[in-house]
C-alpha cells in the first residue's frame, strides 16, 4: 500500500488536535451553557482584487486559505498556566471579558506563491514557487479595550504543502495552462513559528445608530521560515444592530451590523524563506520594509458575518516591479 502523503498527515493531525481542544473546552462548567463557537473561513486571491480589464494576475502571493475554529473559553489547564492573565472561565459574557478572560482558536491554512515570470527553470531575481501548509493554535487574553494573543504554528513546505496540485486543479477548472516551474519550488521541510500580537481597540457611539472604532496593533513573528515585526492601525465606521459578540473577532465589543473599514500596516521583514529560498537554494532579494493598505466592507447578522477586503501590498523583493493587489473574502458562522 502506498504511504500517505505528508501533507495529508498534517491535515489529519490538525483534525485530531481540533477534536482534543474542543473536548477540553466543552468539559468546562459554563461551556455547556451555550458557550459560543465560531467557524471563520478566509479565501485570498489576486483574482479577487479590484482591478481594470485584461488578463487576471496569477503571481506573487497568488492564493491563500485559512479555516479557523474559535472558542469563547479556554481549557482550565491553560488558565492555570497563564496565571493572572485570565481570571474567569470564559469570554462569553460581557462581565467575563471586562474582568479578563481567555479564549482559544485553531487554524488550518495554506499559502501559495509563484514568480511573475513563469518558466521551466528559475529566473534570476524572481521569487521561487512556494507552498506552505500549516496548522496553528492560538491563546487569546482579553481585557477591556485590549487583546493579546500568542500563536504557535507548525507546517510543511515543498511538495507536502500540496500547493502544486491545488493550483493545477484550479487551473484545470478555469481552463488555464498549468504553471511550468513547480519542479523548482522551495524545497520541502518543516516550518515552525511563534507569533505575538497586542491589539488596542477604542469604540465609540457616534449617534443613536452609528458606532466608530479605531484599532492599533503591534505584532512579532519568530520562526525558521519567517521572522519580523509589524505595526498597524485600522478605522471602522458602521451601523449599530442587535449583533452578538463573536469569538472569531474577540476584540470587537460592539459589533456593527454593516460597516466600512480602512487600515494601514508596516512590516519589518527579517526573514522570509518562502521568498528567499531555503538553505543554498536561490530566491529573491528581500526588501526589509513592506507596507500594506486595506479597504473593505462587511455585514454581520446574529449567526453569520461576511466581509470583503481589497489589500494593496508594497514591493517585497527587488525585482518586483510594482505593488500587488489581493482580494480577501471572509465568512464567519456562529454556532
Layout of helices and strands:
Elements (H helix, E strand, L loop, with lengths): L5 H21 L10 E9 L14 E12 L4 H7 L11 H6 L1 E14 L15 E14 L2 E12 L5 H11 L15 E17 L4 E14 L2 E14 L18 E15 H4 L12 E12 L3 E10 L10 E11 L1
Antiparallel strand pairs: 1-2, 1-12, 2-3, 3-4, 4-5, 5-6, 6-7, 7-8, 8-9, 9-10, 10-11, 11-12
Radius of gyration: 21 Å
CATH fold group: Lipocalin
**How many separate domains make up the residues?**
1
Q: β content, as a range?
A: over 45%
Query: Based on the structure given, which CATH architecture is correct?
Result: Beta Barrel
Mean pLDDT: 85
Short description:
The chain has 335 residues and is mainly β. The protein has helices spanning 6-26, 76-82, 94-99, 163-173, 273-276; strands at residues 37-45, 60-71, 101-114, 130-143, 146-157, 189-205, 210-223, 226-239, 258-272, 289-300, 304-313, 324-334.
Task: Explain how this protein is built.
By secondary structure, this protein is mainly beta. It has a single domain, classed as Lipocalin, CATH 2.40.128. Helices cover 15% and strands 46% of the residues. It has 5 helices and 12 strands. The chain has helices at 6-26, 76-82, 94-99, 163-173, 273-276, and strands at residues 37-45, 60-71, 101-114, 130-143, 146-157, 189-205, 210-223, 226-239, 258-272, 289-300, 304-313, 324-334. Strands 1-2-3-4-5-6-7-8-9-10-11-12 form a 12-stranded antiparallel beta barrel. The model is unreliable at 1-35 (pLDDT under 50).
Amino acid at each position: 500500500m502506498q504511504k500517505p502523503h505528508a501533507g495529508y498527515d498534517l491535515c489529519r493531525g490538525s483534525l485530531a488536535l481540533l477534536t482534543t481542544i474542543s473536548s477540553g473546552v466543552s468539559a468546562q462548567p459554563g461551556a455547556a451553557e451555550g458557550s459560543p463557537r465560531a467557524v471563520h473561513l478566509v479565501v485570498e486571491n489576486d483574482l479577487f482584487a479590484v482591478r481594470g480589464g485584461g488578463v487576471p494576475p496569477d503571481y506573487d502571493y497568488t492564493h491563500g486559505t485559512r479555516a479557523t475554529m474559535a472558542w469563547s473559553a479556554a481549557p482550565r489547564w491553560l488558565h492555570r498556566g497563564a496565571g493572572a492573565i485570565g481570571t474567569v472561565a470564559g469570554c462569553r459574557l460581557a462581565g467575563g471579558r471586562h474582568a479578563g478572560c481567555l479564549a482559544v482558536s485553531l487554524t488550518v491554512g495554506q499559502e501559495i506563491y509563484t514568480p511573475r515570470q513563469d518558466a521551466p527553470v528559475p529566473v534570476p531575481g524572481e521569487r521561487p514557487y512556494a507552498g506552505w501548509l500549516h496548522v496553528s493554535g492560538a491563546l487569546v487574553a482579553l481585557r477591556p479595550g485590549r487583546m493579546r494573543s500568542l500563536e504557535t504554528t507548525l507546517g510543511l513546505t515543498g511538495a507536502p504543502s500540496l500547493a502544486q496540485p491545488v493550483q493545477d486543479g484550479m487551473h484545470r477548472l478555469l481552463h488555464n495552462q498549468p504553471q511550468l516551474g513547480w519542479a523548482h519550488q522551495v524545497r520541502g521541510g518543516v516550518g515552525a513559528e511563534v507569533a505575538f500580537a497586542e491589539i488596542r481597540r477604542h469604540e465609540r457611539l457616534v449617534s443613536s445608530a452609528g458606532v466608530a472604532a479605531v484599532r492599533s496593533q503591534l505584532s512579532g513573528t519568530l520562526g525558521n521560515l519567517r521572522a519580523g515585526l509589524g505595526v498597524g492601525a485600522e478605522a471602522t465606521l458602521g451601523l449599530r444592530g442587535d449583533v452578538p459578540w463573536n469569538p472569531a473577532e474577540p476584540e470587537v465589543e460592539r459589533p456593527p451590523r454593516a460597516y466600512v473599514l480602512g487600515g494601514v500596516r508596516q512590516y519589518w521583514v527579517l526573514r522570509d524563506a518562502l521568498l528567499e529560498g531555503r538553505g543554498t537554494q536561490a530566491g529573491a532579494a528581500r526588501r526589509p520594509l513592506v507596507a500594506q493598505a486595506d479597504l473593505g466592507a462587511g455585514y454581520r447578522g446574529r449567526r453569520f458575518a461576511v466581509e470583503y477586503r481589497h489589500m494593496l501590498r508594497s514591493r517585497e523583493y527587488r525585482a518586483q516591479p510594482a505593488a500587488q493587489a489581493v482580494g480577501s473574502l471572509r465568512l464567519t458562522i456562529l454556532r
